[in-house]
Amino acid sequence: MEDSVLKGNIQKNQVLKGYKIFYFDRLEFDILVREIFEDEEYALELSRPDPCIIDCGANIGLATLYYKMHYPDAEIFAFEANPFAFKLLCQNVEENQLTKVKTVQTALFDRETTLPFSVGKVMGSMGGSLVNRLRNQVNLPLKTTRLSSYLQDIPRIDLVKMDVEGSEVQIVKDLKEAGLLHKVERYCIEYHHRTDLTAELGAFLHTFEEAGYAYSMGFLRTYGEMQCIQFNFFRKNNG
């Protein structure tokens, strides 16, 4: 299965901001570089020089590298479901000798089970979703875990960055039910809104408002029936 997905994908690398970064697809790599390093969509001022950051949907590690560039002493937990992207994530962490970075290959959800994970054949090293079916897809059975099972043992969490291709609703639901949503100082979440499905955005935002968070909106991108909206949630007393 793995060979069939990656057939024709030749690993490439490029030096960027002093980092040597491995990737497969040039077009998607350029998009991520523009979003993360040029447009700085994850730019946030955190309150500590050594923050604890949870990177959900770490992909090949560009956001992790970005946070390490700005917060060299940060402790980062990088979660990635896509097994092909995860291999490159580990390679990029090791190649650039990043310290205090723990990589975890798992699909985050609101329960522990096994679900089909949709991976596009053309861009086998990038993307993938538990809830959004992709064109030209291959479905891989992946075990899911709950983010709350990891966060409960971390004393302080400065930031949760989340780009999980539609699973953000289930992950936030898990954190709320576990009583851990309020444990995080800030959230940076890419919300995936489907115009062809029942709207969940209002309830999603209400969950954070009810927990005492304010929020600002970032970019809005549209891909057919999918609208991607970035939300930055922060405790009201932090501004």
Automatic annotation (TrEMBL):
InterPro entries per record: FkbM_mtfrase, SAM-dependent_MTase, SAM-dependent_MTases_sf
Keywords: Methyltransferase, Transferase
UniProt domain Methyltransferase FkbM: residue ranges: 55-214
Alphabetical list of SUPFAM superfamilies matching this protein: S-adenosyl-L-methionine-dependent methyltransferases (SSF53335)
Top-level lineage group: Bacteria
GO term, biological process aspect, one: methylation
Molecular function via GO: methyltransferase activity
Pfam families the record matches: Methyltransf_21
Keyword field contains Transferase: yes
Protein's UniProt keywords contain Transmembrane: no
Protein name, as recorded: FkbM family methyltransferase
Lineage of producing organism: Bacteria, Pseudomonadati, Bacteroidota, Cytophagia, Cytophagales
